[in-house]
Amino acid sequence: MQLPASTCRTRIRRFLALVTVAATACQGAPTPPEPVHQQTVMLTVTDTELRPEPLVVIPTFATVVWRNAGSQPMSIDVGGATCNDCDTVLGFEPAARGARAPAIAPGDVATLCFHEAGSFAFVARVGSTEHRGVVQVGDVR
Question: Which among 28, 45, 29 is positioned nearest to 104, based on CA atoms?
């Protein structure tokens, strides 16, 4: 006995749908997209001051730019968990307790992104002057 053509087409469609679902399930969960760095804040470090102020408040996945407007090389130490692997990191390297930018020439910048909420103390040194501040990331209480 031969099945009607419409029944055969229906069975083929169901079979193809099952194969498609099975193939999709075997691929695993899709990889979530990388978070986008949504904000950049610039700090200007001179021989005598840190502008605009030593407290920087940013959301998660934001980037801080330190600009050396001083007359001597600048170093920066940032404590805590920072992102050292992002493509937005410039001039910083991993350190024992966070990240360090060892020698930023006058007129140059160093950038660091922050992916986790928290308060991260930093020290920017120009010559013998230390400028201390805090990067507050996300909703910190």
Answer: 45
- pTM value is 0.71
* Cα 66 from Cα 101, distance rounded (Å): 10
Q: What is the pLDDT of residues 72-86, one digit of tens each?
A: 999 999 997 666 667
